[in-house]
């Protein structure tokens, strides 16, 4: 099914293909890498949350990528703080800095932090473009920073 999804779909001209996989290094990961290898990808961007358990999973994914010859282009820390819907202040509700520390340990670029944002979740649930609605928010700026670092 992964092969069919990646190869048999007419994607057209792509700058990026985002493949969201579950944590770990399962058969799905191996199948995905095997299929993508034939398409000569530039590499993978890995996403972690700041907590130690997630960082450990992504560390194993870095090792997996390196063993399979898939370059790791960077690490993003997701759920990095919580944006208050009332005052827009961002507060850490989990530990912080796990993604950045991991990037240093494995010598890959740290691409940035994306906070938990209730308005983003609401937009996603209703099919509304968050960037159109809240393009001047700190969360939108965080996304723009990550994308700019990816493109550089």
Quick take:
The protein has 152 residues and is an alpha/beta fold. It has helices spanning 2-7, 27-37, 52-67, 98-106, 118-126, 130-134, 138-151, and strands at residues 44-48, 72-83, 90-91, 110-116. Pfam families: ParA.
Roughly what is the average pLDDT, rounded to an integer? 90
What sort of overall outline do the alpha carbons produce when their principal axes are compared?
A: globular
Give the strand content: 15-25%
Tell me the helix content.
40-55%
Keywords: 4Fe-4S, ATP-binding, Iron, Iron-sulfur, Metal-binding, Nucleotide-binding
GO cellular component, one term: cytosol
GO molecular function: 4 iron, 4 sulfur cluster binding; ATP binding; ATP-dependent FeS chaperone activity; metal ion binding
Describe the structure.
With 152 residues, the chain is of the alpha/beta class. It has a single domain (2-151), classed as P-loop containing nucleotide triphosphate hydrolases (Rossmann fold), CATH 3.40.50.300. The protein has helices spanning 2-7, 27-37, 52-67, 98-106, 118-126, 130-134, 138-151; strands spanning 44-48, 72-83, 90-91, 110-116. Strands 1, 2, 3 and 4 form a four-stranded mixed beta sheet that branches. A hairpin with a 6-residue loop joins strand 2 (72-83) and strand 3 (90-91). Helix 3 runs parallel beside helix 4 (98-106). The protein starts with a helix and ends with a helix. The model has no long low-confidence stretch (mean pLDDT 90).
Give descriptors for this structure.
152 residues, alpha/beta, Rossmann fold, four-stranded mixed beta sheet
């Amino acid at each position: 099914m992964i092969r069919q999804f990646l190869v048999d779909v007419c994607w057209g001209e792509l700058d990026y293909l985002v493949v969201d996989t579950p944590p770990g290094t399962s058969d799905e990961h191996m199948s995905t890498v095997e299929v993508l290898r034939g398409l000569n990808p530039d590499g993978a961007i890995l996403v972690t949350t700041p907590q130690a358990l997630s960082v450990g999973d992504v560390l194993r994914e870095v090792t997996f990528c390196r063993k399979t010859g898939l370059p790791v282009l960077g690490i993003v820390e997701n759920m990095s703080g919580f944006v208050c819907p009332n005052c827009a202040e961002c507060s850490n509700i989990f530990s912080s800095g796990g993604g950045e520390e991991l990037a240093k340990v494995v010598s890959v670029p740290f691409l940035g932090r994306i906070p938990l944002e209730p308005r983003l979740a609401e937009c996603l649930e209703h099919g509304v473009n968050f960037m159109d609605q809240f393009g001047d928010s700190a969360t939108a700026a965080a996304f723009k920073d990550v994308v700019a670092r990816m493109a550089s």
